[in-house]
Amino acid sequence: MSEQLDMFDTRDYDAEAEAKAAWKSRMIPAEWVAPEDCMAGPAGTVVQGWKCPACGKIEINGFVLSINHGIDPDIPGREDLLDHCISMDLRRVS
Ligand SMILES: [Zn+2]
Question: CB neighbours (10 Å) of residue 1?
Fold first, then answer.
């Protein structure tokens, strides 16, 4: 069954904008420094990125923060991820 379209547009845009602004105010902008030559530029290039509020790791942009830590700075999400990080680190198996 397909989703019913809303012809009368009953979304509460003010509430959505308020929730988005509240979420965005909890995000932490941070400078990300390229550890090696990469798509951002040569090693040492500084890019405005985002810091995970749970683990503190700085990512190059909101998309990488989203896929690695589950938090998108632009899209309000799960409150529990603000103090519980879901990122994983690769570790050498010996
Ligand atoms: Zn994290």
Answer: 3
